[in-house]
Each structure stands twice: as C-alpha cells, then as structure tokens.
Amino acid sequence: MIKVRPLIIFVVVVLFFIIVSFFVEVDYKISGYGKIYPYRELLIISQGGFFSSKLVNYLTGFVTNELVYRPERGDIVQFSMKDFNNGKCRICKGDTIGILVSSYINQRIKEIKGEIRCLEAEIDYLKSPQKRALVELAKEKLNYAKKDAEHKKKVFERMIELYKKDLIAQEEFDVIRNDKDLAEINVRIAEKELENVSTGEKPEHIKMITEQINKNKMMLNELIKQRELLFIKSPFSGIVLPSYSIDTLCTVRDVQKFIIVAPIDMKESFDIVEGVKVEAKVVGERMRKIYGKVSRLSEDITVLNGKQKRLVFIEVNGGDVGLRKGMIAKCHIHLGRRKLIERLIGIF
Fold first, then answer.
1. Range with top average pLDDT, 47-56, 156-165, 191-200, 274-283
2. Which of 45, 87, 254, 328 has the most Cβ atoms closer than 10 angstroms to its Cβ?
3. Which residues pair with 45 in a beta bridge?
4. CATH of domain 4-38+257-347
5. With 0-12 CB in 10 A as exposed, 13-18 as middle and 19+ as buried, what is 135?
6. In Å, what is the CA distance from 117 to each residue of 113, 121, 216?
7. Where are the domains of the chain?
8. The sheet that has 62-69: what strands, in order across it?
C-alpha cells in the first residue's frame, strides 16, 4: 500500500498538469540565426566584351532589371565613372554613376545629322524661287536651240542642191554643215541642262526626300536613346562601393531597407505567416535591437546540417541603422500566445 501511493501522486500531478495546460497560455516564438542583406543592389559588370548592369532584389530573389550592351565590331567603348571620394559615397536616386562612351554610336549620330542637313538643304533648293527661275530659263534656252537647229537644218538642205550644182564652194558648204551639226549639239546640251535643273522639281521627288529625312530622324532618335541608356543612373538612393572583383566595376547598395534571411525548421515554419513581428540582435552587439516583420517564406526546402529548413525573409524597419551586408543576427519571430497543451504537442 505504501509503494502504490507515490505512483498515485505522480499520476494525479500529471493529470493536473495536463488539465491546467488546456487553460494556461504561453508566449510562442521561433528563434534562429539569419544573414543580413541590403534590400537591393545594382551591379555594374564588364565581362567578355559585354557591359551590363543588374538590379538584384534580395527580398524577392530576382534580378528585376538588367541592361546589356554589346559593342559593335570595331567599336571602342570607354567607361567613365564619377569621382567618388574615399571609395565610398552616398548617391541619390537618378544620379549618374558612370557613362559608357561608344565611338560607334557617336560617329553614327554625327553621320546621320549630316545626312539630314544635306537632305533638308536639297529640299530648300528644290522649293526655292531661284530654282523655278532656273527651270524657266533652261526651257527658254531649249526652245531657242530647237528653233535655231530647225532653221539651220533648212538652210543646209537648200545648200545641198546648190552644192550638187557646183553653185557654192566646198568650204562654204562645210561651214553650213558644221553650223547645222553644232545647232543639233546645242539642242542636246539644252535638253540635258533642263533635265539637270528640273530633276526633283516634281512633288513626288520632294516627298521621297522628306520620307528619307523622317527615316533618318527616327534612326537618330533611336541612337540618342541608346546613348542615353549608356548613362548608368542609380535607381535608388544608397551608397556606391568599390569592387575588388575583376569583372565587377562597382556596386550600388540600397541602405534604406535591409533584409534578414533566416533558415527555420520546416515543421516550425508552417506556423509562420507573413506580417508577424520579429525582434533581432546583431551577433556581437548585444545592446542594440532591430525590429522587423516577416515578408515572405521560400517555397523550396533547403537541407542544412542534415535538417530540412525553409528560408524566412524578414524586412527590417527603418533605414540605415548601421547594418552591413553579411552580418549575422539572432532572430526571434513572435507568433503570439498559444495554449500550453498546443506547444507540448508541437514539441513532441
């Protein structure tokens, strides 16, 4: 009887604890370590003869914008970067970071501008009153040449009969024949002159030149847009950092927001929902706390140290609070209060 009593007491205590656990609530939080990343980064890269800029969003995990420039054969490209003091500089949204100067694009712009000026001058000449006066003068000259040639042809035909009858000398006949031939040559010359000065006078020719001007202007606008794209501007306010990589020219980092990426046990991760509050401390800085909220959870499962994990993306409140990319922070994800029995079942 004495031996049974401790067992009964133990059972009663356990039952009492179980009953109480249905009513008692405790704070529920999930803890883990995470790595700090900036919200966004702009990478300016030169690799294999290509120049590119990539905008990486660490919250979504996507490259949200990428510009690639491939120089044409024979093109000489120079990258001119803004002078940043001490290798670090704050930059505002829309500020120019650097410029890619393409000799090919600049040369094509100059050539097309020259072609447009020539075509516009040609239209002005074709439409000018001086042009019309030259055409009228050429027409009068052609009419005169035709009349003169007709007259000398008749004279020559009469002289043939006289020459056959030996009424005129050979020298005189040759002079008359030469005058007739010269008059016919003058007609052909006058026709060519009229053709030269009247070429393009027709409205369809002016229309063709106008269409060519419009086409060149479209090409010019496209080249100017391409040149403007080579002005690399910051899509956000942040800091410019030097790069010690062979292919990365520089990095622009958004310090207005930071992201903590923390791997959490897969089983516990299903209790986490977007928007829950998070409290974190940077390892090595016990006195400072940072706060944020869960922004999203990854769909993929990652295996770390033989355990299945899901990545939780935590958006840190506030701007530049002295955080740096690569820092490690211990995070506490607060999930509110839960009944003690639920936590016990979840543990076991």
1. 274-283
2. 254
3. 52, 248
4. 2.40.30.170
5. middle
6. 6, 6, 10
7. 4-38+257-347, 40-95+234-253, 110-223
8. 62-69, 50-57, 40-47, 248-253, 238-242, 89-91
